[in-house]
Amino acid sequence: MKKIVLVCVAFVAVAGAFAQDKKKADKKDLVSRAGDHFMIQLSTDHWSGMPDSINNHTKGLSRGANIYVMMNKPFKGNPQFSAAYGIGFGTTNMYFKNYNIDIRSTATKLPFTSLDSTDHFKKYKLTTAFLEVPVELRWVKHPEKENKSLKAAIGIKVGTLLNVHTKGKTLQNKSGGTINTYTQKETNKRFFNTTRVAATGRIGFGNLSLFGSYQFTALLKDGVGPVIHPFEIGICLSGL
Questions:
Q1: What is the pTM of this model?
Q2: pLDDT 10s digits, 97-106
Q3: Which of 147, 17, 14 has its CA nearest to residue 88?
Q4: Which of 47, 69, 71, 82 has the least C-beta neighbours within 10 A?
């Protein structure tokens, strides 16, 4: 409960600072300098370093979403460049077939179990959610008309883990026949690193860009499972 309250307070603080920043800007800035103060990112999610025993059980298009509120500060000496920072949320969803990741296990290592020859869920995913602070160094070709200009950014984001859960829907037998429509959701963060640090980059035109990120910190704690580094590739919608 305390973490949720802190998240809300931080989000409101950044939004309030953004509002004050816009009030201080002159009319020309309000019209001509968008600054990408708000970003929505939709991604395909992947795991680097995943052993074949896990990779062979991934299913379909794993996907995620990020949403950030940002402050943008152009450099006085060169308005093509700016520094940006903010706060937001990031989620990932990795999908598997005929598989189980027992995050509620009491064992010292996280069990990854193939269910090819036994009952399994038709749909199964592992979801993580982070509160994140992104920082970017930005470049825009035409700062006076940013919404119609080539732009790029590199940066880093630091996040704290809010939630990890697995979710399975529709229990099936080994032949694929439906046993019932049971849904199982399990939550536990014990095996996972609670801090993530990731490099970020994006390039695009106007309000649409391609982005990518690579997580330097491992998904799992040392010694509890394979050394997996998540990364994501997707599109970013930005504006304001």
A1: 0.84
A2: 999 999 999 9
A3: 14
A4: 71
